[in-house]
Please model this.
Amino acid sequence: MQKEEYNLIASLRTGSPRVWWEEKRRTLRGQGRGDDGVNYFFQHVPKTAGTSFRHQLYRVFSQKEIFPNLADLKQNGGRYRPFRELRNLTPDFLADKNLLMGHLPWHAGKHLFGQEPRHLLFLRDPIERMVSLFHHLKTYGPSVDATDREILDLIDQHNQQTRIIAGPGIKGDVKPEHIKKARERLATVDFIGLTECYAESVDLANKIFQWNLGKPKQLNSRINPQEHIQPEVMKIIIEKNQIDYEVYEIAKERFNGLKKEFTVSPASSDSRCSLRDSSERGIKGVES
Model:
């Protein structure tokens, strides 16, 4: 768990800071939720700036409204609990909660709340996401001396964003019917953000839900995807994740449609928000 989270736990426990934040959140939410009983499910897709967005959600939801909250995460070693540990819980477990977050399957929100929540998620350019995962495994994997090819072999599934959206239970290769399922589901999502357009995404969430999430801030620094990966391994990563680009194109359509509907202007801070078209499926400088 990051240092900022521990500091936030301390500031919210007791005393005037907690009272001040409770009053402040009512203002930050605006007219978006209040006590209307609406539930929210932030489906945190790994390596998509979800941790950054989670921290911004802390501005508009108190810790007592969130599962897992900071104390829950600390108790579990800073990690989300897997769905297999939650699936048999009754809706009473979340009776006093309004925000569910985690690396959870698509249907987890409805399953755990007992009714359909408002659904939020971020997606990311598939190759940049896989490169981020690659570097994570290279840094925190079983061996710091592993070759690029050995690191690649640790990634047992590709097209992971498609599997998350169209799943669970996709075994083997992703197929056209999974793309169709992903399209159907993304058409129903209440909010979708794109990592490459993080500032615009935060602005979009503010307008959809009438929140004030504060200044967009991405916590994790970005590694240059062109550095430190052998070209032949990079080529394999690109080739194996082409299906995710099909779904990413669908996500971009939904994102741009919501931006138009809620009148979201381009953010000058989003220097990377130049979304590739479907013909440019790879990192610049690496042949696909």
